[in-house]
């Protein structure tokens, strides 16, 4: 096992709030991964890995004067509907695909970790609780996301739909575009990929240079479990290797300390080469996921993302 990397002090170029986040952030190590065929071991691993976030958000409730939550089920997929107060019932829909390394943050966590973004949108957010390993492997999660996207197309014109995803959700959001294209479906008006996990082979430069500096670690074993024996370079698994021609206008976000920075900048180049309108935001000293949503830097990124949605989503 490689020696831990030195931690660099927070730079003076960022806000005091962001410096405080970096001052307590270290390299993040998940529990050792079980063998790929150890289902019970993976169940325990998921429970242990989800545990801290479940404890933190376990009592989280929506305020009735900010947003209400309902849900529907389609093809066995529970989808949470987050509807900000004051947003009309026929508002545009954002299909938000939650993060979690393609294996974590299911159940109640799926909507709780996306609620803050949903509350600020002039849109209704749908959060599919897509099925995940160890019991459901590729392509089940993508099939679930496609089913929910088809439902969105049945209820809204594509010009009034956006697809968004952070981390593993970014993987599924981009893979969904490829799958929808292959199935002859219209694509949405906008695509948002926040620190996206676009390359399950983890081949980019920053998987080496930022390992131990970002709070996120490598997920090779999880990726193999999710892929269920399929080649990790398949575009539905690693959308960075797909044909992005015809993608909708795309918003990309990363940070200079984000393990997935290589994923993001490589996708930016790929989209530019394909003639896709694309915006890229790279946060100075930003970790995977930014600074937790509570700093001036996070607020600037969120404002840019909201402006991007307002520009591309039809009223």
UniProtKB/TrEMBL annotation:
Residues 94-289 form the Alpha/beta hydrolase fold-3 domain. SUPFAM superfamilies: alpha/beta-Hydrolases (SSF53474). It holds the Pfam family Abhydrolase_3. Keywords: Hydrolase. The keyword Cell membrane does not apply. It comes from the Bacteria. Signal peptide: none annotated. InterPro entries: AB_hydrolase_3 (IPR013094), AB_hydrolase_fold (IPR029058), GDXG_lipolytic_enzyme (IPR050300). The keyword Hydrolase applies. PANTHER family: AB HYDROLASE SUPERFAMILY PROTEIN C4A8.06C (PTHR48081), ACETYL-HYDROLASE LIPR-RELATED (PTHR48081:SF30). Belongs to the 'GDXG' lipolytic enzyme family. This is Alpha/beta hydrolase fold-3 domain-containing protein. It comes from Nocardioides dubius.
